[in-house]
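We treat protein structure as text, and this decision shapes the records that our systems exchange. The remainder of this section carries one protein's record, kept here as part of the documentation:
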Amino acid sequence: MQNLLVLHGAIGAADHMKPLADALGDKYKVHTLNFSGHGGMPYAGDFSIPLFAEEALQFIEARKLEDVSVFGYSMGGYVAMYMAIKQPKLLQKIVTLATKFHWDTEVTAKEVQMLDVDKIEAKVPAFAKALKERHAPNEWKEVLAKTADMLRRLGEDNALKLADYATIQTPALLLLGDRDKMIGLEETVAVYKALPNAQMGMLPNTQHPIEQVDAELLAYFIKRFV
């Protein structure tokens, strides 16, 4: 059975991906992981795309996984692309959903505003409670602070430039929800056009949060491509 590594997004965790993993389990041997600092994992330094990509590559190496494809949600998709550059022959295929590829200081400023812990506690206490439980025993506020720092660094120096995608030979499917208010269609199309071997798809009636994505529909797209 083919191996499929499923990567979570920023401030998320492996348990976020369980509905999708269950929907894919009939066809793939599905693997999930928590990036350092997420889902209770110990910290391994400052959050960064290179760090998370290295952790995913080490996960594959430690388990001696072969014939591996990767699905990455949001930040996880960005990590998957970075993995393909670091180990160009390792991954069979890549699927991303709701991945922000374009970063600059203006984009970062908007994203960091959504990580304001005081506003989250005041306006969406249920979300604050979920973050606390998801990342325990780590302090969820520190997870958000480290994520904000990572985004600021991306805004100053994007880990992947548009020209970098032209070097990725791994077949890739870029997916975007038609109601995603966080990811621009233009940035997704730009990366799709830059990749030498890519396809692109739009998920109907789909917003950004993974909790609101139809897992069976997403699994259909993944199975059809991978």
The two ends are 12 Å apart (CA to CA).
